[in-house]
Amino acid sequence: MEISGEMRLTNSIIEIVMAKLNEIESLANAFDGCRGVFHTAGFIDPAGLSGYSKAMAEIEVSASKNVVKACGVTPSVRHCVLTSSLLTCIWRDNSCNGLPSVIDHSCWSDESVCQNKKLWYALGKLRAEKSAWKVAKESGVKLATVCPGLITGPDFYHRSPTSTIAYLKGVQEMYVNGLLASVDVNRLAEAHVCVFEGMKKTASGRYICFDRIIGSGDEIENLARETGINSSTIIGGASSSNRARFELSNQKLFRLMSRTWRCFNE
């Protein structure tokens, strides 16, 4: 472990610590003294066309497993919140009969669909989250996952273009199926804090997080401006009249956040 510096924020001290994601002991040393861990899992591959190549999927799986294992061997850690992705829920074989029309926290993407469509970002997030749940169960770590839509916000794309581009692979199909959703980065941060605080009581499991479903022409134009991607690339040849609608549900997170903010205001 290498301590690279400190910075002061109001009356508290934030200690910046370096750790190696491929070494559980290094991670455990970094976590020592912490009550909770937020694993935001923001991996990129400069060699990948979209910033996220097929090889990154396995790297992300390994890192997520190590983080949860390190939580399990660090006595001070009580909870772990993993940032996953909405993509772990929406990529299914839509030609199959009987698929539920409502996609919520109980839904999982199909690995074979992600592989066949070369959706490496979705595949990496999917395998990483499943691996994290497996390790958490084996090691007794109290884990929760937040599954956000496309992350947006002032200048977010310009600061993190690779994750945005990787997320939007397959954007036309997401749009056609009514599954192109986004969340403001500040709202996402609030959701993470809310889930973490809720875990001290009864909060657990997966939480889908989005605050906007891209559907109207104005929303498409706004997304195009935010990401620098041409609006025609987003919609392809689809129109509102021929879109096969699925419904995204974030009710689990909405209820949790509503209860939490109500308690804070009382």
From TrEMBL:
SUPFAM superfamilies xrefs: NAD(P)-binding Rossmann-fold domains (SSF51735)
3-beta hydroxysteroid dehydrogenase/isomerase domain sequence ranges: 14-200
Record-linked InterPro entries: 3Beta_OHSteriod_DH/Estase (IPR002225), NAD(P)-bd_dom_sf (IPR036291), NAD(P)_dehydrat-like (IPR050425)
Assigned keywords, A-Z: NADP, Oxidoreductase
GO terms (BP aspect): steroid biosynthetic process
Molecular function in Gene Ontology: oxidoreductase activity, acting on the CH-OH group of donors, NAD or NADP as acceptor
Protein's name in the database: Cinnamoyl- reductase-like SNL6
Native species: Olea europaea subsp. europaea
